[in-house]
C-alpha cells in the first residue's frame, strides 16, 4: 500500500504505487528470480522494504529493515551510490559473511541505489540463480540504471510535493511472472492427471504453504489432504521439523535449482523428496525411498542439519558478546569443532609480518610451537591462504601432499580447510580445521565456513583493537594510582583495587593516603563517571589536585571546593564523586566532606558499625560555586574507617541500602582487626553478593595509637 505521513499516521499515496510498478517492470526485464525494493524515509538511516518479488514476506523478514551503515550489498550500494555486484556464494561469503551465513544460497546478486540529484531515496536488490553469468549483461545494467534514474526522479517529485514515499506496514508482494493463466478445464485436467500418478505430488507456494497434494502424497505422508492444505509441511508434520526440509525449500526457491533429500516417517518409513522450483513456488515429488530410483546425490547446497546450525547460531550470538581476543578464541574453539565435526582446530593471528598462535584444539603443543612466529614469506598452505585471501580445501591427504609435499602432517589427519580471516580487506589471521577422514566439503559447507571465517575476522579485528586500547588505558590508570601508600605513625592502612568484570573498560576509581604532618594525614576516594581513557585521565587530574590542596592544611570542604573549580574549568564533560577526610591523630578527631560519594563505614572501638552519613555536596564538575560542608567526628583508638566506590555495593537490580547494611554487618562480625584482613573480608563478601560490573576501590584505615 502506498502511504504518506500526516500527524504521525501513514496514509495511502499514489507515488509508491508507480514506484512499485517500475520495480515490477525491472524484475521482468532482467528476469530476476527475486527482487527487493527499499525506500529511505527522509531524516532516517534505515532502509525499509516496500516491495518484493519471487519470495514471501516471511522469507524476506530478516531483510525487511537494514541500517545504511550495515554490511549488506544494498546498504553498500546506497552508501557508496554505485552498483554492487556479487558474483556467487563464495564472493558473498568473503564480502558479506553475515549474509552468507544466514543465506548460503547458490545465487548471484545486484544492488543499486535509487538516487536523485541531492540524495539517495532508497535501493533495489535483484537475485539470479547461479547459472547466471558472473557479470551483469549490458541489457541488465541498462535496465537497472534506467530504473534507478526513473525511480529517483519519481521520489524527488513526490518529496517536492510534500508527499515523500514512505513504507506501509507490510511490503507489497508482486504476482509472479506468468505467460498466461490456465483455464478451468486445463486446471481440472492437470488435477485428474496428478491424481492418477503412482507417486506423491505436492505444490508449495512462495511462503512454503501447501496449495495442492494428490492422494498418493497424503497417503505417503500419513495425513489427510485437508490437514496439510494451507499449512507448511515442516510445521504440521513433526518428523519434518528438522531444518533440512525448510532449508532445501528455501535453497531451491532462491537458487531455482532442484534438490532432493530423504526423511524417515515414524516409525521407520523412508521417504524420498525431490523439490523442483518455479516462479510461483516449489513442486515436490514424494516416493518411498526403498522403491524409488536413486534420488541422486543431494544438491551441492547440502543443508548442514540441526546440530551444526545450532552450534553456528550459538557461535554467532556468542561472538557478538566477545570483547577480547581471548573471548573470541574461546568461543570459536568451543563451537566450531563440534559444529563441523573436526578433530583439530587452530586459530592464528598476523602480527608484524609473522604468524602467532592464538588458540588450538586437537593438537600437541610441540606441534603447534613450530608455527608460532613463522614469517609470512614461508611456502606453507597457511601462508598461501593468507597471501591469496582465498579459502583452501583439501579433501584428502593425497590432495594435500600434491600441493605441499614438504608440509608436516599431524598424526593421521586426512582433510583440511584453511580459512583466511579478513577484516576491511586485509588478512588478520587464519582458521585451520583438520579431519582424520577424507571429507568432500560440500558447497554449503564451504560457503558456511567462508562466511564464518569472515565473521570471525571482523570480530577478531575488533577484539585486537579493544585489547590494545584496554592495555593502554589500564597502563595509564595503573600509573595514575598510588604505587605505594606512605607509612603514617598511628594508622594502619590497606587499599584494594579490582578492575571491572567481563565486557567493561577501565574506570575512573581512585584512592589516596596523604601525609600532611607528623601527626595528621588525609584520606580520599572517588569515582569519575565513565569507563574509558578520558575517565582515567580526569581521575589523575582530580587525584593530583586533591593531593596538592591537602598538603596546604585546608579544611575538607575547601579542598573539595577548589578541586571542583578546577574540574569545572577543565570542562571534561564528566562528573566525579569524591570523599575527602582529614585525620588529626594528636587531637583524636577527623573532619570529612563529600561530593556526592557513598558514605564511609565507621566501626567504633566497641565493634558497632554504621554508615557515616555526611551533608551531601554536588558532584565535582557540575557548577563552579558549589559548597561542601565539613563534618567533625571523634577518632578514638581502634576506630576503623572503610571508604569504597560504588562497585562494592551497586549493581543493576540490587538494593544498595541493603548491600551497604550487609557490608556494615560483615565488618562488625570480622574476627581480625588488622586493616589487611578487614579489607580482604569486605572485598570477599561483596564479590559473593554483588556482580563485578564496575571497578572497585577500597581504602581501610584503622587507628592504632
Secondary-structure blueprint:
Blueprint: E1 4-6, E2 9-11, H1 14-30, E3 34-39, E4 46-53, H2 57-60, E5 65-67, H3 73-80, E6 84-86, H4 89-95, H5 97-102, E7 107-115, E8 120-129, H6 138-160, E9 172-173, H7 184-196, E10 200-205, E11 210-213, H8 215-221, H9 225-228, H10 233-236, H11 243-255, E12 259-265, E13 269-277, E14 281-288, H12 306-321, H13 325-339, E15 344-351, E16 354-361, H14 365-369, H15 381-388, E17 392-394, H16 397-403, E18 415-423, E19 426-435, H17 443-480, E20 491-498, E21 508-517, E22 520-528, H18 533-550, H19 556-570, E23 576-584, E24 589-595, E25 601-603, E26 609-611, E27 631-634, E28 640-644, H20 656-669, H21 675-689, E29 696-703
Parallel strand pairs: 4-9
Antiparallel strand pairs: 1-2, 3-4, 3-8, 4-5, 6-7, 7-8, 10-11, 10-14, 12-13, 13-14, 15-16, 15-19, 17-18, 18-19, 20-29, 21-22, 22-23, 23-24, 24-27, 25-26, 25-28, 28-29
Helix pairs in contact: 1-6, 4-17, 12-13, 12-17, 13-17, 17-18, 18-19, 20-21
